[in-house]
Design brief:
Layout: E1 8-12, H1 25-39, E2 44-49, H2 57-74, E3 77-81, H3 85-93, E4 100-105, E5 110-117, H4 125-131, H5 136-144
């Protein structure tokens, strides 16, 4: 893959929180995204990790979708990450948007860093929790409450 020359690299990656500065992850991300949307040009590259994290999952997914839509209208290339199935479906059904996933080694419980283009990623949270010793009964009881 050959990438074009970009005039800006706009990035929001990481999970730094500062209670002292009163900037929880969601608020910090929203401030960063606002600034990035204002700065983005048709020649920008935008990298954003889990932009809807830190609020209710359904609300976060809606916010992520809105941001993706705005960035893809404004920029040459936007590479967001998500665990939201709704957004993976959006990527699978929207022209000009493509899913990709990083392969996960279920035996060793770690990413292989092999990029699988055209494939929506899966989450293995429950399987990982079980492999780390959380009892099925505890997980099932928590899910019902």
């Amino acid at each position: 893959m050959v990438l074009p020359l970009f005039d800006r690299l706009l990035v929001d990656i990481g999970d730094e929180q500062s209670i002292a500065a009163d900037l929880p992850r969601f608020r910090r991300t929203m401030l960063n995204l606002k600034s990035m949307l204002e700065e983005a040009t048709p020649k920008s590259l935008v990298l954003v990790d889990e932009m809807g994290t830190g609020t209710a999952p359904e609300e976060g997914a809606r916010w992520q979708w809105r941001c993706w839509t705005n960035f893809t209208r404004k920029t040459a290339l936007c590479w967001p990450t998500t665990h939201h199935d709704r957004l993976k479906t959006y990527a699978s059904t929207t022209p000009g948007v493509l899913n990709a996933a990083v392969e996960f080694d279920d035996v060793n419980l770690r990413p292989t860093f092999r990029l699988m283009v055209g494939v929506p990623g899966g989450s293995s949270g429950i399987a990982i929790a079980q492999r780390l010793g959380l009892a099925d009964r505890s997980l099932n009881r928590r899910a019902r409450s």
